[in-house]
Amino acid sequence: MGDSRSDQGESTDESPHENPQTDRIADEHEKHLLRAIELSRMARGHGNTPFGSLLVDAGGAVRLEQENVEITERDCTGHAETALIRAAGKRIDRGTLAGCTLYTSCEPCAMCATAIYWGNVGRVAFAMSAADLGEVIGAARVDPPLTLGIREVFSRTEKRIVVIGPVEAVRRAAIEAHAGFWSG
Fold first, then answer.
1. For the whole prediction, is pTM greater than 0.85?
2. What is the crossing angle of helices 20-45 and 80-91, to 10°?
C-alpha cells in the first residue's frame, strides 16, 4: 500500500535553486501559500479559527478559496480544507481535481486529509506543520490532539497524492497568523 509521495523539501528556501523551472515552481507555491495564510487571517477576523485554503488547477488558476467556518457555522467539520473539498466536489469534475493543488496554511488534520483523498485532489502544499500548530496552541488546547499526520494518512492508500510542506519560506508567516489567538 501507499504510493503517497512526500516532497517535503521541494519548495523550501533552505538551499539555492539551480534550475529556473524549480525557482518558478517554488515562487508559485509561496504565492499561493501566502494567500492561504491571508485567508487564515480573514477567518480569524470573521470569528473563526485561523486557517485558510485554496484550490489551484493545473494551469495555475485559483478555482476556489475557503476560510475555516467551524465556529460561525457551528460545524465541527468546517475546517477550511474539508469545506473547500465539499464545494469543489459540487463544481469541479474528479479528473480536473486530480490535477489540482490544495494550498493550506497548516498541515491538514486526519479528517481533512481524508476529504482531500476522497475529493481526488492530486497534490497538497502546506505552510506550517501540525507540530508547529501544537507548539502555538500549547496549554490552551481544548481537545486532546489527534496526531495522525497527512503523510501517514496518505501512506495507507493506494492513490498517489503529492505532499509538499512545511514550506520554510512561509512557515513563520503562518505561525504569526495564530499569534495570541489560542491564549485568549
1. yes
2. 110
